[in-house]
């Protein structure tokens, strides 16, 4: 049975890189999306492609417009909760002190489910807290109250526009997260567990290739086969929340 085969591959590994994407949070009711944009198909109601509305240049040029869509994403995340898949991953990390999470998601669900922040790489950033684009100050007010005010939310100190530390379209990935990822990839992983992502970005494909070349295992959990499926030892097709809970039950800690 595939789940046993996958569990065996991960049981024998000490260092595991768990790569998660939108498909994991889809089981929490969040829509799957490409980057930040998939809450929408194609154009926004303002007639702009979402890649333009949710871009760094638009945030600077027309912060109210960009924030209209940022706030929708914020509200969707605030209404949702981590699911059994996030909790199973946190449990796997408790049993495997060498297990790291690399996520494309900005919803913060891994932290809420108990994944240790020092073994979590949020490559697209996180929605809260907000900080000021003018003076740089971090705003400690809770996100729901900031979203209830007229948009864009503004800094109490200098009235500058606040923004979340997420990677908008046309923005660079955060240096700190890229460095952390690079360091861990160089240390090597015995196995990769890919969950809910097509993994079509270089920063994801590279660690996957490296682990494969070094003889490590690759386990994939996705609804459908993806472009990395041909590389995988096992493809577990199904909802991440269901599959991961079963998988982790079969994994021993040593
Ligand atoms: Zn400020």
Automatic annotation (TrEMBL):
Keywords, sorted A to Z: Metal-binding, NAD, Transferase, Zinc
Leader sequence residues: none
Official protein name in the record: protein acetyllysine N-acetyltransferase
Top-level taxonomic group: Bacteria
Pfam families: SIR2
Residue positions of the active site: 124
Residues reported in the UniProt entry to bind Zn(2+): 132, 135, 155, 158
GO MF annotations, alphabetized: histone deacetylase activity, NAD-dependent; metal ion binding; NAD+ binding
Enzyme class name: transferase
InterPro entries linked to this entry: DHS-like_NAD/FAD-binding_dom, NAD-dep_sirtuin_deacylases, Sirtuin, Sirtuin_cat_small_dom_sf, Ssirtuin_cat_dom
EC numbers on record: 2.3.1.286
Domain Deacetylase sirtuin-type: 1-254
């Amino acid at each position: 049975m595939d789940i046993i085969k996958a569990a065996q591959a991960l049981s024998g590994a000490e260092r595991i890189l768990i790569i998660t994407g939108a498909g994991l949070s889809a089981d929490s009711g969040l829509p799957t999306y490409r980057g930040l944009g998939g809450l929408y198909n194609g154009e926004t109601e303002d007639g702009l492609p979402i890649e333009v509305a949710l871009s760094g240049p638009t945030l600077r040029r027309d912060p109210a417009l960009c924030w209209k869509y940022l706030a929708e994403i914020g509200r969707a995340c605030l209404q949702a909760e981590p699911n059994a898949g996030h909790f199973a991953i946190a449990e796997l990390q408790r049993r495997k002190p060498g297990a790291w999470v690399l996520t494309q998601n900005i919803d913060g669900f891994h932290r809420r489910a108990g994944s240790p922040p020092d073994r979590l790489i949020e490559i697209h950033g996180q929605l809260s807290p907000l900080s000021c684009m003018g003076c740089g100050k971090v705003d400690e007010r809770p996100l729901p109250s900031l979203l209830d005010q007229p948009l864009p939310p503004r800094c109490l100190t200098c009235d500058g526009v606040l923004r979340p530390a997420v990677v908008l379209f046309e923005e660079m990935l955060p240096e700190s997260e890229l460095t952390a990822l690079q360091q861990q990839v160089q240390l090597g992983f015995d196995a990769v567990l890919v969950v809910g992502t097509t993994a079509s970005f270089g920063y994801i494909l590279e660690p996957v290739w490296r682990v494969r070349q070094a003889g490590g295992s690759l386990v994939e959990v996705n609804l459908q086969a993806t472009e990395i499926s041909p590389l995988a030892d096992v493809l577990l097709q199904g909802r991440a929340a269901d599959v991961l809970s079963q998988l982790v039950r079969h994994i021993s800690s040593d």
